[in-house]
Each structure stands twice: as C-alpha cells, then as structure tokens.
Amino acid sequence: MSGMRSPEITTWNPASWQARKAQQQPQYADPAALQSAVAQLSRLPPLVVSWEIEALRERLAAAQRGEAFLLQAGDCAESFADCESDRIAKQLKVILQCSLVMLHGLKRPIVRVGRIAGQYAKPRSADTETRDGVTLPSYRGDTINHPEFTAEARAADPVLLLRGHERAALTLNFIRALVDGGFADLHHPEYWELGFLRHSPARDAYERILRAIADSLDFFKSLTGSTVQETGRVDFYTSHEGLHLLYEQAHTRFIPRSQRWYNLSTHMPWIGMRTAQLDGAHVEYFRGISNPVAVKVGAAMDTGWLQGLVTTLNPNNQPGRLTLIHRFGAKEIERSLPRLIDAVRETGQNVLWVCDPMHGNTETTVGGYKTRRLENVQKELELAFTVHEANGSRLGGVHLEMTGEDVTECTGGARGLSDADLARAYRTQVDPRLNYEQALELALMIAEHSKKARSL
Ligand code: PEP
Ligand code: CO
User: Fold this and answer.
1) Which of 24, 72, 76, 333 to mutate to test the pocket of ligand 1 (most atoms within 8 A of CB)?
2) Which of 168, 230, 276, 355 could form a disulfide with 226 if both were Cys (CB 3.0 to 4.6 A apart)?
3) Residue 210 CA to ligand 1 centre (angstroms)
C-alpha cells in the first residue's frame, strides 16, 4: 500500500502538498472560477485564532498525561440547511450534557471539541455513483456539491467553498455567543434541557449526576469564595476533517508573533482514514501547520506506516500535538490495537489515544439503511479502555457521531430501536448518528466504566 513509503523531506510551505498525490479531491470544470474562490477565501478573516489553538494543545497534552479526557463529537457531515439556531443549540446541549456525565464519572476535566463549524467535506469510497444506468460524481459534502442526483447538483461548484466558510462562521459565532453568555455555565444545566429528555429512560441517572455536580460546585465555591463565572465556565473547541486541501490552504496563515503557520479555519483538523498515506498530500500539508492534529487509524495500518505518521507529524514529540483516533470495529479492536500501541511505543513518542467506536461498526440493513448498533459501539468503547490498560497505555478520549435531535439512524439503546424504526426519522446524508438519548447512554456507560475501574 502506498501508505508505507516514507516521503523525502522537503521544504514545507502551505502549497507544498501540491507536489504530492492528493486523494479525494473534487474535479472542477472551471479552474479560473476555482482560483478566484480560493483567492477570496484566503483574504477573509479567519474563524479561530492561534492562542485558542495553543490553549487546546495544552488541554490535549493534559489528556495525554491522563489528567483530562477528550470528547470530540458532532455530525458526520454538517449541512448548510442545518445551519439553524435550534439545531446548533441542541448539538451544543447534547455535547455539554454528555461531557457533564463523563466529568462526573471520570473525575477528570473534559476537553470538548465539536465536529462542527466546518465539517462539510466528506471522503467517499467511490468517485461516482450509478443509479438506473446513469453515472454521476458522488456527493462529497455541502462545500463541494449537492446531494440531489442530477448532473447539475453533483457538479463541483467552487462558490460553495465560500458559502461553507460563511456557514462555519455563522455557526461558530452563535456557539461563541452561547458559551460566553453563560449558556454553558455548569451552574445552569437547566438551560441545556432537551425537551424529550423528560421521557427518557436515562433521565434519572442524568438528574442524579446534575445534582451531584451542582453540590460539588457549591462546595468548591464555599471553600474558595470564587464566583460562579470563575468556577463554572466551560471551553468549547471546533474540529473538522481537513480533506479539501485548497480550502485548508486558503485558511493557512503565518503568525508573526510565534513565527509559525496555523490553519485558522478550525482548532483541530484531522486526517481521515482514506487520505493518511505517508507520501500523500494530506500528510504533507498537516506536517507544517502548528495546530494540534489528529489522524484516523484502522486495521489496515501497519507498523511502518503508523510509525512514519508519528515521526513525520510530530518530529519533536510535542505534547498534545498528535492524536490518534482508532476505529477498528468491535470485532477487530482486540486483534489490532495492541500492535498499534506497540508500534507507537517503539518510536519513543507520546500520542493521545482516542477511540472512534462509530466508523468500524457501520452496516447496511436489508432495507438499505446505513446503520450502527449501539451495542457494538458500546462494546468497542469498553474494549478500548481495557485493551489500552492491558497494554500499559491509556485511552484519553472518545470520538462520536451524534446529534441533539431525535433521529432514528442507529439501532439499540434503552428504547430498543430496531431496523424497522430507522425509516421514521432517518435524516443523515452520510453516516448514521447516535440520537440524544443514545449519546447520553454512551456517556453514562463511560462514567460507569470508570467508576468500576476505580473501585477495583
Ligand atoms: C468520518 O469521521 O466521518 C470518517 C469518514 O471517518 P474515517 O476517516 O475514520 O473513515
Ligand atoms: Co462519518
């Protein structure tokens, strides 16, 4: 596999990836229009700033040391149509709720990172899709083309890159206002109430946890005399798959203060499974930016490939710089993870290990729905904790596809969703997400797991 060949070390610049093979890039019919869109993008104000990025790197370094835990979560793909206040607030709410439950169980600060405000470009297993003898380019996400199956909708349109930047900015602006305005204050979790939680089997456990957290915050306040704002505020960071390299390049800026390059479209971009080739364009681009970066890793990755990624992306072994998000599937994790843990150990480097229990557990129902069973998601996550521990390593976070809405895309959970329920509220354009209740159940499971582990 091409992933195994080590690249020559060359001088990096934001466009140096263009000399390498770039997988998963759309074909544009009009190069001048593409160039014009990219030129406009590179002049627009960025979405995030370098000191926020540095702050996140420090927090990820803490997670790497076992002093914090990462919750990275959101949609598989955001859509422009979903850029609405209600949906964004619900997504933020469910992430905050899950983080509270995890905080309580893990007794460690939770680093919250959304798959949000820019998660618009998707890798696809095939470049084209055929329906009834008609072949068209695959849908690649809302910054690239449209999902409808017509030649016009599926043509890659460079103007969508600008629309994507704008939607990401609108989304992040609203998130920042909510977080800064006290919405995310731990003293007021009642703001985060999702109406449907009232009827949820997980409600009692959640409320108990809320009360316990409120009590401990009051206790802390009475000890230290510090104000609500000082003790109760939470941080929230953004991430997306850094897939469309011209888009990422346009957001790459040199910061004179630190004399470094940053991608200012998001705090934490990641490299997907399909674009992690060692000699490929994505690894070349990512090695030169100073953001904390992540790579999705799976069973196909051999020792040399993984070691090459670790040394290329983090040559100075900087704490918090590199997160490895493993996604094997419940059936495969026990066989593959120990090998990858050993491979990283041999490099003498430290990484943050995170489990994505979603992407290795996708299946298609007889009815043609792409789904995931919560029991497999739970099983892979349980195994991730125990396999890391048994191999002298540590699971430092979880990566989830979930939504604050009452969708029916994954099966299982306390409400016992079955394949037959999927048709009721199946809304994702790409991968199936946990609904709010299934997400909360998973967070409760993580909390329970660590309580058990502590009492051993
Ligand atoms: C994703 O995170 O949506 C994705 C495509 O994952 P992976 O690269 O792990 O397949
Ligand atoms: Co996905």
Assistant:
1) 76
2) 230
3) 32
